[in-house]
Amino acid sequence: MSNSRNNLSRSARVSHCRLFASGPFKNVYAGHYTGGARAGEACVAKESKSGSVYEAAYFEEELTIICRTQQLIDDWHDAAIINKRILLNTPQIWIYRTTGTKAPVEPTFGPTGLGPDRICSFFYLRRRG
């Protein structure tokens, strides 16, 4: 049984009209997958507040942390340390076609409340090749 949720998609549309969530270092924007196995499902793009992050090392470190977290979750599951299933969203680093800015994109748990009539000013994303 997999303990991770992955993109499984080729493209997404992300709305910058409305902030989905915000933290100390990142803004999160909601969207939906437009291609691949998750087409039509909700996703989020997480963008750095300090401006565009271009250094590959930043994204490599972020993905390394997620990979290590996944290893811990898998180890807990295999050892039956907890009696609940934990799922980790595993993002991919995608690039905005319009700006070239990189952002982690991942599936969303649960509904986003983002209907087709509330979406505007889309930026298309493509997976980094």
TrEMBL record:
GO molecular function: ATP binding; protein serine/threonine kinase activity; translation elongation factor activity
InterPro entries: a-kinase_dom (IPR004166)
Pfam families: Alpha_kinase (PF02816)
Domain named Alpha-type protein kinase: residues: 21-98
Keywords: Elongation factor, Kinase, Protein biosynthesis, Serine/threonine-protein kinase, Transferase
Top-level taxon: Eukaryota
Protein name: Putative elongation factor 2 kinase
Source species of the chain: Rosellinia necatrix
Source organism phylogeny: Eukaryota, Fungi, Dikarya, Ascomycota, Pezizomycotina
